[in-house]
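Quick start: read one record
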Amino acid sequence: MSLHVIVGAGPVGTATAMLLAERGEQVRVLTRRGSGPRHPAIDLVAADATDADRLATLASGAAALYNCASPPYDQWLTGWPPLAAALLTAAERSGAVLATANNLYGYGPVDAPITAATPLAATHPKLKLRAQMWLDAQAAHQAGRIRATEVRASDYIEANSIFGFVLAKPLLAGRRAYVPTALDVPHSWTSITDVAKTLVTAATSTQAWGQAWLVPTNPPLTVREISTRFTTAAGAPAPKLTSLPYPVLWASGLFSPMLRELRITNYQWTRPFVMDSTHTEQTFGLAPTPIDQALAFAKPTALTPDPRSPRGTDGPG
């Protein structure tokens, strides 16, 4: 039994903690308020993860340190740098493998499916930040200071994505859903269960260290297609969908920080935004959760992240 320390108790942090606990590992989950999943093998600790000294102490003796946290979207540029720096310091001092759950933002706009060979080419400061975090960790790994790996997912199926924020609640109620994206553009959707499985696999497999891995993900579905699959699985009425024009999204962003952030990643919805996880699947023998099985656990999520736990949420891909 090894100790695994997880920063963040959002959907990915919780899924990772439960997976490890059910495997018989000792798990320590860190959030500012000491919240998180309940299990006899999980120790919930209140801590500020930007405090490198405290984080290093809590990670002492751990096999792996998991970055499953994310500041609120509108605070990334100020919230991520101190958190990322503390994680690097804690990994170096403790000797724990630093395993990060990331998204696809670092690639920026793409014209082909994202694969293991696709370069990180984002230019927007917010998107480039997530890429730079990995480049910093990789450089520290190559210098022999830490052992690091990262897994990257697209928008989550079960929670904390445009699906959970915008679609799930009205679809379950049989109401019309007003979507700030195109309805018929192929898009990849990743199961949170698969993020946790891949993250633990990467953290505990020496061949994964020093590299980033795409989480096993099913073939892409359009918003219309995934909505139809969801209502069918839930026994709800057929989906009624209306795509909101971009000017409406822009104007709505004047009043909603979350909707304002969607402007930045609008490129992911105006043309195909898909990933090919074949390399990860073949390397580790992993496979994505069947889409209908994942949709059975999809649920509405709050539009605004909980301000009480800025280190305890993980956002969409």
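Confidence is low (pLDDT under 50) at residues 303-317.
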